[in-house]
Amino acid sequence: MTDLTPLGATLRAALDGRWAQVRQEARERFAPEDLLTDPTLDQEAHRARVFEQMRLLAGTGHPRNGFPAEYGGRNDVGASVTAFEMLAHGDLSLLVKAGVHWGLFGGAIVNLGTREHHERYLEDVISFALPGCFAMTEVGHGSDVQHLHTTATYDPGTGEFVVDTPHEGAVKAYIGGAARDGRLAVVFAQLVTGGRSHGVHALLVPIRDEAGRACPGVAIGDCGAKAGLHGVDNGTLAFDHVRVPRTALLNRFGDVAEDGTYSSPIENESRRFFTMLGTLVRGRVSVAGAAGSATKTALAIAIRYAVQRRQFAAPGSDEEVLLLDYRTHQRKLLPALATSYALQFAQNELVASLHEVHTAAEPDEVAQRELESRVAGIKAVVTWHATSTIQACREACGGAGYLAENRLPALKADTDVFTTFEGDNTVLLQLVAKGLLTEYRDTFGDLDTLGMVRFAAGQIAGSVLERTATRPLLERIGGAGPRTREADLRDRALHLRLFEDREKHVLEGLARRLRRAGAPDADAFAVFNAAQDHVLRAARAHVDRVILEAFVAGIEACTDPAARETLSRVCDLYALSTIEQDKAWFLEHGRLTPARAKAVTAAVNALCAELRPDALALVEGFGIPAEWLGAPIAAQMADGARQREATVAQDA
Amino acid sequence: MTDLTPLGATLRAALDGRWAQVRQEARERFAPEDLLTDPTLDQEAHRARVFEQMRLLAGTGHPRNGFPAEYGGRNDVGASVTAFEMLAHGDLSLLVKAGVHWGLFGGAIVNLGTREHHERYLEDVISFALPGCFAMTEVGHGSDVQHLHTTATYDPGTGEFVVDTPHEGAVKAYIGGAARDGRLAVVFAQLVTGGRSHGVHALLVPIRDEAGRACPGVAIGDCGAKAGLHGVDNGTLAFDHVRVPRTALLNRFGDVAEDGTYSSPIENESRRFFTMLGTLVRGRVSVAGAAGSATKTALAIAIRYAVQRRQFAAPGSDEEVLLLDYRTHQRKLLPALATSYALQFAQNELVASLHEVHTAAEPDEVAQRELESRVAGIKAVVTWHATSTIQACREACGGAGYLAENRLPALKADTDVFTTFEGDNTVLLQLVAKGLLTEYRDTFGDLDTLGMVRFAAGQIAGSVLERTATRPLLERIGGAGPRTREADLRDRALHLRLFEDREKHVLEGLARRLRRAGAPDADAFAVFNAAQDHVLRAARAHVDRVILEAFVAGIEACTDPAARETLSRVCDLYALSTIEQDKAWFLEHGRLTPARAKAVTAAVNALCAELRPDALALVEGFGIPAEWLGAPIAAQMADGARQREATVAQDA
Predict the structure, then answer these.
(1) What is the dihedral of CA A173, A176, A177, A178, to 10 degrees?
(2) Catalytic: which of B372, B422, B500, B620?
(3) Which family is it part of (chains A, B) (predicted)?
(4) Nearest Cα residue in chain B from A174
């Protein structure tokens, strides 16, 4: 990192955020060989390598960050998630394996278990002496976790739970750690006692003994080859009346007495379920962060290549043109880069919120609900951004981008599943919309009776229309109404108004539409289904606004004038390219005139050209050590290219 | 295929087109195990398997179709490309390996060589006794083939060419067959004789002996692991003053006499180059076909899954909802399905044109140029369609879509490179635009002097604004002007007018814009570069119109009333979802009012719902035997699901 330009260094400081120290430690501690994996390893070798890396990682003490101080942890959730983000610049198999073990498995014991579980297990979890699994998803139920079919039936005669997989569709599927390494699993099952079901609860079920043999009654399968994440041993788990002691139940939110009496601090079954799930939100924040990191790695590779690679001579010239000097190439990469900046600021806010919620002395249910909604939205947007951007980077590198050595293939294949795991994005956006609608509940009280809101998405209980910390800022910037035609398009107040106005309009329209369904004979599903694209649009408009506000707040917090100026331009590009993508909506709803809409495209083009000279500095701002990039087309910059880029930046 | 519904059978007949017999033979001849490959094979095993499959394929006689009758071929180019399309429902490594050997290597010998080469090599090419390579792309020059750096210098002293790689950037890269199997390579090099260069020509250069050892002076590298196509042995080739006889030159378009005198039937060097390249257009048609097939396989898998998989119960109901009954799921898959139908009709026209051009008694240069432009456009559109659609299919199948056994990972990874090989899509669209601009040459004669057109894309010489066979049809349908507001949106004439009007308007605007650059001080590159997004838009609008017209012609040719009705609805969906994607343009240019633009979205939603009951029949129409799908989530349909779908279709 010795070759950082001054601008690159200040941009990096702006993006590094509150846990900058954790990022810097990671940069210094990890060598490329710690993070990167030979892409030619076969599945078994890759799994073995990741297992070994997990041990090394445990040795660094990093995983302690996320655990309570009483059990050898450091209770610094923000540091934990930030370290995870840094790790995500390397092999994502290690990342996911670490996330499953320490994040999901360990997190479930911490958040759903009680003192007895903590004392018994946490030290071995932190040290990776006890590799774990998180057995939630089933073959038949991934998104609709509330209705999974595995059962845990209490037998008061022996004081045990009987964990059972009643049919093929109830087999636990895609479980990380199941196929090779996992010894203990957190198993989600319908808890039955005294002949009555009390909804989904989690239990600790041993699946392998220390010698690696499957425990009696546990059938373990291997998911085999996947699109990516070859180093993660995903497998299936089926239970044939497996008996575990009563204390195997992670009993913070629901317990069964020796005689079989069920008790819970939360009366309502559905609310209890969502409260339990809510405590596991960290996994989703981590996936969002990992997707962001992988995207930035891909952009760094493609942009560093694009300022070195030439093709076709300009008319009347013998010199060939650099790829990044072509408008189409700028268009492929620079708006995506701007979005990555925006998302990093949003992610930093998210991590800070998570940290506050999880380290608060008293649980704050409203803050918790707000966080859940925010996480769902950001996770959906950032993982889709990863899929499309890494694809664009691959294409921008042509044949070289197809070679494994240049990392884009693995980045693409590994992150692909992020759009559908830790919550399917389409379902997550419905969850966001539900939160928004709940806020509007008073306006259309009949919705709940229709069961529509309950159906729209299954995972949020409370009322949510979150406002970011930058809300007052908007008032301060003040401003131009959304229909102004004359104002300069690079007017932050205009961007904020356009984003906010769109959100409000789409949401109100959606509410009206669903309200109409109040008719006694209305087919609730048909009404909901007809509005489903509207539901997704409402959520997306909301998340876009939250992201823009986070970017604005990030610029406000930056004190270096040069960095501020560049960030402001990047923010313009983010805002205007986002508006451009949804231009039809703004035109259809009279928010942009045709002339102004064309001007948006012209402004995006102009911003790409203006940011072109700072392309390298902008990539440096991502804070990825060049040697971590690995890709031969990008890790090294020829001296000539470096000098030319410096000159270009100076001349601009 | 015994379980085809009546509608599925007639749709299949419509899509099968002129070479239906070839398709049917392929369905009957190939068992799944002939086409599909175990996704867990390692690279070497996969390469060995593909090599063995190549021998088997040679044994079937299929490859004969594409070769001249004089040398054991059948001279049926259409049959050859169609068979290739069918093969593309299987492992795409085999497909690409076959395409490189018979299509590119064999095709170059046929089209660039003369009788002596044909007599000496073609039999061994057809039988795969002599595995070949097509060594065009270099590390430094992929898109700009005209300026590659390998040299072939004639030495009149020995009557030999000296083939040389002058520097690292001139190494031949990504060459299929180079790493393991290839023995003879068609090498593209700058031909130098008598101290003068005559541009790029192709020579036959032995690279390995029969024992598999590299020939003296030939350095062979292995591209190693790639994103996909693991069974194709891509490698690098570098030549250190390798001597080949004078007759190694494929001398149809340029020859060197013993004394070193150069001669060619085509005076102009650039025109000669593009003529040579033009004869190789079959490769691009084949890639387009393969991309179309892979996309249809992915859609078949995702749609068959979506009519069996349920998630979340509807409000007030215990029964969970089928994925394909959700509007968002229909939106993900059905417009893509409609586009696949449209592209298949366009591909069928393309293959027919190719067949006519290549089997014509007299070469028709205008037809050849038109074909090249058409191929470039369709190839770009269909390969991007493949990338986005297969991705959508993966996500639509959730975790199951991420498992290798369900084939979507390989379909995605294997086809990924299609957008940048056989011509980078961005470059290809510029080539299409250049053809369109050339047609407008009279309007702005100064363009050529500027060198802009020459720069815009490097591969077409002649004048091209092709019109499809359906052109008169448009007049017959007659009609509604583009600004009509009242007419039903499902009006074919309206669709055609909207597509055509957009093409015309964008192209005229582009021409005006480039014309303005005529000023004496204009920086030609800056002007071109500023218009580059406009250039791509012009090409895209043109290709969209060509595709729609092909669809319309396909419906006209279909005689079954039920199939016609369904196809017409699918065509509506294709046309309206294409308009919806570019809605902002239609709004900005006053072609749609806001109200009408919203109605387009409503019509797309309605069409998805209307086509939902026919989803299975529409997939059957793709003509892929269910057992070829391989994917466990799709190959088998549970009896219950099959019956339910039949009922749904009947009730609709």
Answers:
(1) 0
(2) B422
(3) Belongs to the acyl-CoA oxidase family.
(4) B399
